[in-house]
């Protein structure tokens, strides 16, 4: 008699499944070199822009004080003790508005998007109002915001929320509705409850889109906070109020210094949520390079 050899399924799978190639770990030196190579293009563009700035100041712009040189901005805007302290205080006040407005916009936007994803009638009934809110000119309702909320911190936060809300709503809703249909049907076959589907499938799958919304809203929240500073200047002034003050007295070196700090604040907020996105979803979500 011939003996029949019975092979375990796991062994068969092990035999036909190709071994995953091991990726060698890069050393510290290679990581430094890679980071340096990645930093070269933006540094080259930065050097070109600085050179162009000096050229415009020397040969194009007249009078020259309308476009001060970068070294003048550093010396008069950042090395001057009074101006530096004003800018630091203004950035601190604006940052509080930015963080408060972004947290509120994110909470409202995510909750609104979740509600719309769970009920088609909710989306049809309320999403047009999110679009309308995005299209309303802020300048047209500034007087109403001042009357309703005062002319201090709360009014600035309201402007910030209105500007930063729509990206959170639209991106979160897009992520929740982009779940793979086969996975969704699998949950339905298991008779999973709606809350389970939301927390175990839809929300994790929507995290990349949610962080896209957070990055976008983070930059817009800085814009909203500065716009609020322009119109609601009671209390401690923010960076927007300083921009108005410096422009009013034609102090362009300090004006450019404040503009630069405001831009850096927006970049910092954008970069913070970009880093959080890599830490939270980078383990299983890798974009195509």
In short:
The chain is mostly helical and 289 residues long. The protein has helices at 9-16, 28-59, 70-78, 81-118, 120-135, 138-149, 153-176, 181-189, 194-231, 239-248, 252-281.
Structural account:
Residues 91-277 form the ABC transmembrane type-1 domain. Keywords: Cell membrane, Membrane, Transmembrane, Transmembrane helix, Transport. The chain is built from eleven helices and no strands. The chain is mostly helical and 289 residues long. It has a single domain (69-281), classed as MetI-like (MetI-like fold, Orthogonal Bundle). Helix 3 (70-78) packs across helix 11 (252-281). The longest helix is centred in the middle third of the chain and has 38 residues, at 81-118. It is globular.
